[in-house]
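Record minuted for everyone:
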Amino acid sequence: MTICLNDMVFYGFHGVFAEERTLGQRFIVSLELTTDDALDKEIRKLDDTVDYTKVYSLLKKIMETDQFYLLESVANIILDKVLAEFPLVKKAKVFIQKPSVAIQGILKSVELVMERSR
């Protein structure tokens, strides 16, 4: 089974430049969680699966409370904590979009994608 949390919007203070860490900006995060397909037919109650409301709360805390210079650092922390706190997750893939990029040019966003398995 794959559980997807799509286009979560957080306001965080991440970035290389001091202004980004002072003023903050929006980040759009999506997360794909993969579980063991063999266990799907046994799901009867919330404890049998991944509680995505708890996953959302974890991401919200990381994105809005912690501060990082690099999106790669944010992605690593997200993946480490998701795999540590949700034992049913076998693989996690995070997508982090940064819509307001300090680049002299026109682009919708920069997106980092990172994946980790047990």
Strands lie at 2-12, 25-34, 91-98, 110-117. DSSP finds three helices and four strands in the chain. The helical segments are 18-23, 52-65, 71-85.
